[in-house]
Amino acid sequence: xxxxxxxxxxxxxxxxxxxxxxxxxxxxxxxxxxxxxxxxxxxxxxxxxxxxxxxxxxxxxxxxxxxxxxxxxxxxxxxxxxxxxxxxxxxxxxxxxxxxxxxxxxxxxxxxxxxxxxxxxxxxxxxxxxxxxxxxxxxxxxxxxxxxxxxxxxxxxxxxxxxxxxxxxxxxxxxxxxxxxxxxxxxxxxxxxxxxxxxxxxxxxxxxxxxx
Length: 212
Description:
The structure is a single chain. By secondary structure, the chain is mostly helical. Helices cover 58% and strands 0% of the residues. The two termini are 19 Å apart. It folds into 2 domains: 126 residues, no CATH class; 85 residues, no CATH class. The radius of gyration is 17 Å and the shape is globular. Helix 2 runs antiparallel to helix 3, helix 3 packs antiparallel against helix 4 and helix 4 packs antiparallel against helix 5.
């Protein structure tokens, strides 16, 4: 409710992406049943407002997806707009990841995730290092790095995360960097690297992860 009541004003911490955070919260609250086949994802989207009853969790997924795809940051600050764009793509990746873990129909998911990773990297160009949004870049960078497949993209994200860690010195940033390095090591030693996920590494290590 707090996120919905902020309005269109720029928030000193959330920037211009408060509505995107609302969709992330809704994605976190999705309740999936057993792994199932879903061929109609995206066919029930009607409104970006999540209220009322829906036929299934897939209807809610489609509504979140449509809301995120249609959302645009209305602001003249190019750095804040770039930050919001990165969060928007990260929110979509987060949604697609949850869908991927709970459905046997993975067709097309890898492609859309890769496209959103590229958008995050593109938005990163518009945010100079050591500027004020650096402290909230952790979430989109972590999400992008978790599904990046290009070595160049991985190194770009790694370097930026290390810069943030160096300038901010927060333990949660260092923790996120260490988790991603474990993912990288595990993928290098796995016959099927794409099956190694940061959630699996986190579960094996124990402990939490704060991406703010």
